[in-house]
Write a structure and sequence with these properties.
- With about 100 residues, this protein is mainly α.
- It has one domain (about 5-95).
- The chain has four helices and no strands.
- The protein has helices spanning about 5-25, 30-40, 45-55, 65-95.
- The longest helix is centred in the C-terminal third of the chain and has 32 residues, at about 65-95.
- The radius of gyration is 17 Å and the shape is elongated.
- The mean pLDDT is about 85.
Length: about 100
């Protein structure tokens, strides 16, 4: 996964390749796809990957569940950035 890509860009691309492999007869289960996605994520997701691995059963997790967890993380990170930026702007206005 490239650093500039979002989860919503990356996971459908992985799904495309998984579907292509299935089309050619490969049997690929969700747990294998989940593990591959977790290993291939950008470094900014490291702590999220660890949290998911420790709190969820990866053997039963679906790609959709993983997508939801990663998307929630991305949204929280964006909110935190915006909040920090607003605080910095307020400080600079008062100085």
């Amino acid at each position: 996964m490239k650093e500039s890509k979002s989860v919503l860009d990356y996971i459908p691309r992985v799904g495309y390749y998984v579907n292509q492999m299935k089309r050619y007869g490969d049997e690929i289960k969700d747990d294998r796809v989940v593990e591959k996605i977790l290993r291939s994520l950008d470094l900014k997701f490291n702590y999220v990957v660890i949290a998911i691995e420790e709190s969820k059963d990866l053997d039963t997790m679906t790609v959709d569940e993983l997508t939801g967890s990663l998307q929630a993380h991305e949204e929280q990170a964006l909110q935190a950035k915006l909040s920090l930026k607003e605080k910095e702007e307020r400080r600079s206005t008062f100085q």
